[in-house]
């Protein structure tokens, strides 16, 4: 199978960096945002931000998928 | 009318409507193996979304998340951590899995391994790992249903008869209508669950504390350590969080039922779009945390955290509302269990029994055996639920660690030409061996502050890589595989030997 594009992978790494590897930076109670402890707020924020980054990845992946299909079209 | 009568009547009404929908979905569709397992591969964005949401948001979501917030505190944040990331991973994995599935008429996860690696023994072993990991998952749903009925009847009905009645219905509609019935019941369940989760999650902190922010303020005054890792636990700290989130993000779509759900999609674009929007659905999870945390202050001495959501609903709201929440939970448990049973039964009949013991079986006989296995697996899970007492989250982590071991075989199978059958076999066996030995020696949640499934996954990857480099490539990657296997009978897997390189 055709591997995904580098751009899409980089976009996908952003949510990983923000919600997983960086836990030491955001796992604290203060500053509280909207009444929530900071760690709760941060993870809820990324539920909303992740679709934005993945929408970007979608825009990168889908046109390229269409191109390959058009190229393949003649061979089948 | 006693409150338990009101609550139980409403729960039974919701379950009855759900079951009717499940049974009636079979009309206008001839139920062959292809239709029963993958819905004829014709589901669009909405139905796939419902099916995947129906499978992903289970009783574990409903009761287990509030239960961990109650008993453990901040470690429950790992659910919010992996929530969006499983879809990020699925964005890359599921579209090529779907493409391979459509090309070779694959119906199960084990079919994927069998065709890609040209070995029915690897396929059978993958099926075995899948079925063994699914049993604790079904057990979660059975236990959840039992807890719902027990709490809603104020202890009047013991959970055992409730579990038996509920799961007879589940086996019934899986038996009759397969995956299509499940997708339609999911609609009812999703609407109810969203309504119940949002209402309870907002209302409970408001009623007792005057708002979510004030609930947190009260919690910080009584137990400040509860809200950062490791919370009420000694060992679930930052490294545990990172390794658990990684293990589940990679392993989540290795659950055979989620993997196979991708085959129900009409095209791979549907799956990519789904991956983009699904994280938004995770928004119900923090609401479940708020309920569990409120319960910690309001009802501090429950014997089991998994009871916290239902108990606080019972204490706060009128009986009919307990019935609505209980009904949503009951249908959720039934939908999730139905797809798990369908998947487990198909894996057993198609990938374990037929290729190893009875190669001459027809598709029709396989469907019949799978339906019998639905009943066998249902009885097994009900018996386990009656006799075991593990918490919902612990059961879930156990199964997740098992299926995560399939990740190297899938991802390398899709994107690497150098990976070999022997490499994947060796990696999978070592991964499963490590999971089992860590679990059986009491390290089911941590081992040296790391997630045990993650340790197994790393060793699994290393073994797969080393053995692959030491052995010769004998099978072709998907794009060069013989299209001979793509016979319209939906039986392509039996032709896989033609896929081997000379």
Quick structural overview:
The complex is a heterodimer of chains A (76) and B (502). Chain A is mainly α and 76 residues long.
Your description of this structure?
- The complex is a heterodimer of chains A (76) and B (502).
- With 76 residues, chain A is mostly helical.
- Chain A has a domain at 22-60.
- Helices cover 74% and strands 0% of the residues of chain A.
- Chain A has 3 helices and no strands.
- Chain A has helices at 6-21, 23-26, 38-73.
- The longest helix of chain A has 36 residues, at 38-73.
- Chain A starts with 5 loop residues before the first helix and ends with a helix.
- Mean pLDDT of chain A is 85; it is low at 71-76.
- Chain B is an all-alpha fold and 502 residues long.
- Chain B has a single domain (3-403), classed as Sodium/glucose cotransporter (Up-down Bundle).
- Chain B is 73% helix and 0% strand.
- In chain B, α15 crosses α16 (363-387).
- The N and C termini of chain B lie far apart (75 Å).
- In chain B, 62% of the residues are buried.
- Classes of the chains: A mainly alpha (76), B mainly alpha (502).
- The A-B interface holds A 1-4, 8-9, 12, 15-16, 19-21, 23-24, 27-29, 32, 34-37, 39-40, 43-44, 46-48, 50-51, 54-55, 57-58, 61-62, 65 and B 74, 77, 80-81, 83-85, 87-88, 91-92, 95-96, 99-100, 211-214, 216-217, 220, 224, 227-229, 238, 241-242, 245-246, 249, 268-269, 272-273, 275-277, 279-280, 282-283, 286, 289, 414-415, 477-479.
